[in-house]
Amino acid sequence: MDDSERVTAADVQLMQGLARHVTAVRPDLVNSDASVGELAWIWGKGQTSDGGSWRRRLWFSGGELVAWGWATLPRRIRRNDGSVKDVTSAYLAHQVHPGHGGLLDEVIEWYDRVAAGVRRTVMAQAADESALERWAAHGYETDPSSLGATGSWTQLNQRDLTDLEQPKLPEGYRFRTAEEAGPRAAVQAHVDAWAPTGYTAESYEGVRRTPPYRGDLHVLVEAPDGTMAASTIMWLDEDNRTAEFEPVGTHPDHRRLGLGRAMLLHGMRLARDAGARHMTVACLGSPGHPAARGLYYSVGFREFTRDASLVKAG
Questions:
Q1: How far apart, in whole angstroms, are the C-alpha atoms of residue 102 and residue 107?
Q2: Which of 158, 194, 201, 199 is nearest to 301 (CA)?
Q3: C-beta of residue 104 within 8 angstroms of C-beta of residue 131
Q4: CB neighbours of residue 122 within 10 Å
Q5: Model confidence over 223-261: pLDDT tens digits?
Q6: 303: helix, coil or strand?
Q7: pTM beyond 0.85, yes or no
Q8: Which residues, in sequence order, are CB contacts of 226 under 8 Å at separation 6+?
Q9: What is the rounded distance in angstroms from the CA atom of residue 206 to the CA atom of residue 45?
């Protein structure tokens, strides 16, 4: 067990290594925030702004990482519109190797210590019944915010990369890559799609430096007036020949034009050319959040796994 507290770039690469291994043996047990792409995205964009609120612990067996916990403690987020968001609860990202399930108790106990006194949240895999039992034994319950038509739980969708449609953009729109468009355009595309956001040029520089980011797998859609109207990043796991969309966003003035659908189809063709055989993308799964799910279903994705959103009072 490694007792260091701050999350480093080397830690993230170790975590990605465990993600690749779990993907190979039990892909249904990869936590939604513990995939190769999600780890890269979270670390890359947040290491400067949020890194001070991050704590982690790693568990090793025979020199190999077999479990980890990454706690994000309460913090203040400053966004591009000048607003400030105070996050008062803690959140845990984590992964335990299927062959070392007993370590989950140690991960939970560590999380309870490092986030003592505040509301603690976590996303567990709904398919992992034994893990859900362990969380319940430690006092974690279903998060009320995840219930009902607008619940906050996430589902992971997947499809293979055969029989891909030819993407079709409206007249005057064209595909670009981040390599072609440049950093400023890539940042603005994300900010426009997700405003208000804390994403900055510094955030993007962190993303670019985080493996397995590739500028040729960072796709944008340019409008006739030069606006970057949509964007997505694809994260390639070469070991398992799979790729993940994260994030996917469209400028509000260019929605309902089919840009997202065309961009996903184009992106999957690029991922396939890069060696991927399967593709994944996550979205909110509750009935009250149909937009993203409908988009992904329209290009052949179907639900593979889903989260169980858990909480423990401070």
A1: 10
A2: 158
A3: yes
A4: 25
A5: 999 999 999 999 999 999 999 999 999 999 999 999 999
A6: strand
A7: yes
A8: none
A9: 6
